[in-house]
Amino acid sequence: MSERSSLPTVTQSGLSESEVNQRLSDGRANIVRDATSRSVADIVRANVFTLFNGIIVTAMILVLITGSWKDAVFGFVIIINTGIGIVTELKAKRTLDRLSILVASDYTVRRNGTNIEVPSNGIVLDDLLWIRAGEQVPADAHIIESWGLELDESMLTGESRTVRKQTDDNVYSGSTAVAGMALVRVSAVGAHSYAATLTAQAKVYKKTVSDLNKGINTILKFMTFLVVPLCVLLIISQINTVGGWNIALSTGAWRQAVVSAVAGVVGMIPEGLVLLTSLNFAVAAMRLARHNTLVQELESVETLARVDCLNLDKTGTITDGGIAFDHIAMLPSTSCSEHVAQQALYDLANEEQPNGTGQAVLAGLRDQGFSEGQVVTRVPFSSARKWSAVTYGDGTTWYMGAPEVLLRALDGDYANVLAQVNVLAENGNRVLLVAQVTPEDATVSAPSAGGAEEVVDPQAKPVGLVVCAERIRADAQGTLAWFREQGVRCRIISGDNPVTVGAIAAKVRLTGERQPIAMDARTLPEDIDELARTLENVDVIGRVLPDQKKAIVQALHAGHHVVAMTGDGVNDALAIKEADLGIAMGNAAPATKAVAQVVLVDSKFAHLPDVVARGRQVMANMERVASLFLVKTVYSALISLGVVLTAIPFPYLPRHITYVGALTIGAPAFILALAPNTRRYIPGFLGRVVRFALPGGTAIALSVLLSAWLLPSIMHWNVARETDLASLRATCAIIVFTLGVLVLARVASPLNSWRGILVAAFAAAGVIGLCIPFVAQFFALHMPTGRVLIATGVALLIAAVIFVLCHVVMALGARIVSHYNPTRQS
């Protein structure tokens, strides 16, 4: 094979076939057994056997046992909500299962004195392995012999510059060879390698914590303590209303008693809120996907709204990993014009296969109108030589290369030039030197590739310093400005030199007008609390190790910050996993993308403001709709309690609450949840929702209970008769609907736009439904007439007064509390 024949001749023979087989049988091969921490069964179990599902399923079964299937339609929400949860988590499982830092490919190993190709998992401990340019290192190893090997270790360390490796150095899995080659002896394989160790830590399953879901679960847990005893009491009270257990069992009246009890239980559970939260997360994720932003965990959409601290990796986030030609700084001692120096620089870079710096110089000068000159001879750039040269027809020779190498070869004292180089380098620039020697000054023959005179003429004179800088993303400065305006503190955390990173941070105005404060991670305190205090005054941290990135996130958590972390390298994976919100670039290592909740598919930093804005929309709108659902929970609980205490028939059926809830809560809530909203996240979601729901829920409960207590006497209804009880329940359902519309109007305010039309449309839909025979019959509703209409009108008027009074009392109470406790958050 041609690839094998191009390898250098070495004396080492490598492992024998028997030694390889022994290691394979002992499990010392480069195999990582991937296994996510959650099986399909675990995922299904976690989504099916929830507190919410248990309550609703039990209630649905009880209603189905009675034969009143129309009152059990509320149970369909379980199927939808559970399906969304299972599909989402199965997708996350597949992502974790595919997690692998290393790219699967074949490698050349030396065994029995012969070079052979084996797959990555065929490499064994102590193998002699060839590492060549363009290959990713598959296992940790010790270099036996190096032929100019240069590694890109940015995926492991965050350091953007390549590292030259010598004999006896160590190389680690996950790094990539960018130049040269080496023969190495494998020292760690499989799960024991550096990359696999990072992967194993990153692969631990972590569920995103959602304030919305926490709030909803808090409500559900509270309701569980209330629901179970209240349900038993409701059944007992409803049995008593039909004459006791003997009569109920003999006449079948127990069925209606169970349905009545379920009406109270179902009303207390905000089942639509759980579904709507999942759907809203999913819709937000789909909208973000249209902007090349992949949301891998739906709950992370909400986390976006709460982020107040954003940690940015420099390479791949602020910069794109490439370099750009900035300018040529002409030295005061030269008489050469800048234009001539730029032309020479263009020709020096214009090689057959220019490196990254050469490509940057060519691109920059080409944009200024420069093109190829009349070069007679050329010495291409070499990483060993550290310089290149061109000679023109007039005998003038130009050199370009590493400043310290060229200046060392020249006659004269150029300490001032070297000092200028150091200043530029400390500001985050990559600096090269161009020097010129004319025919009359030359003391050696013009250099030529492969010729005898591949040396720098000591009479050459420095002309200028070529300044190249990391290419900053065009969207970086504007995006950082947006975050500053939104009160999100941004920090750059990088493996590069802190001075270099600080200079780039200043260029993109990380801290606005203020100069960013940079710090070397090697001086960071190890104590988390002390580190948290240190970070409050630091904007840029350089020379950061992977474990330190994780510790920085933990320290910010200790300071009660909600942290987002961006990155693209394996060295970022642990910190991204630790952060409240992990954001990976599309060109990131597979491990990093797999553990991130959000992936910017096209690696554009400018998408982040839209991502955060979408999170704020979800959080602010879900607070609105949660208030709607909790109103139903409050009045259902209070009505159930009133029914138990006063032993009256339950004033409405489950199907009534399904109809009313769909028109005053479910459908409008879905629309409101998708409306534009850029309000910043304010802590205290659950408290605000409860304070909103209490007056509305209390007003509806009092209105319904007063009607259930007084109307039978006023209208001479005998609630033991099915027709009279049906009339009472229909009237109470109308009261709940009317006050539900008023609650909807409060939630949707201001009503001077489409929101007013929304409220009017659903109010009209409720009335129209009463007039449609099929709808009215299915939901056991009917339009009141005659004396019933008058009584219903009076009841609605009293209900409206109660509604206003409850809100006035609540507002006065809040004002009094604020007066005596001004620090209390609203």
Structure description:
- This protein folds into five domains: 2-30 and 103-202, Distorted Sandwich (Calcium-transporting ATPase, cytoplasmic transduction domain A), CATH 2.70.150; 40-97; 211-285 and 618-820, Calcium-transporting ATPase, transmembrane domain, CATH 1.20.1110.10; 293-318 and 474-603, HAD superfamily/HAD-like (Rossmann fold), CATH 3.40.50.1000; 322-471, Calcium-transporting ATPase, cytoplasmic domain N.
- The N and C termini lie far apart (75 Å).
- The chain is an alpha/beta fold and 826 residues long.
- The strands form three sheets. It has an eight-stranded mixed β-sheet with strand order 8-21-20-19-9-16-18-17, with helices on both faces.
- The protein has 29 helices and 21 strands.
- Helix content is 52%, strand content 15%.
Q: Which key terms come to mind for this protein?
A:
826 residues; alpha/beta; Calcium-transporting ATPase, cytoplasmic transduction domain A; Calcium-transporting ATPase, transmembrane domain; eight-stranded mixed β-sheet; 29 helices; 21 strands; elongated; disordered N terminus; translocase; ATP hydrolysis activity; P_typ_ATPase_HD_dom; transmembrane helix
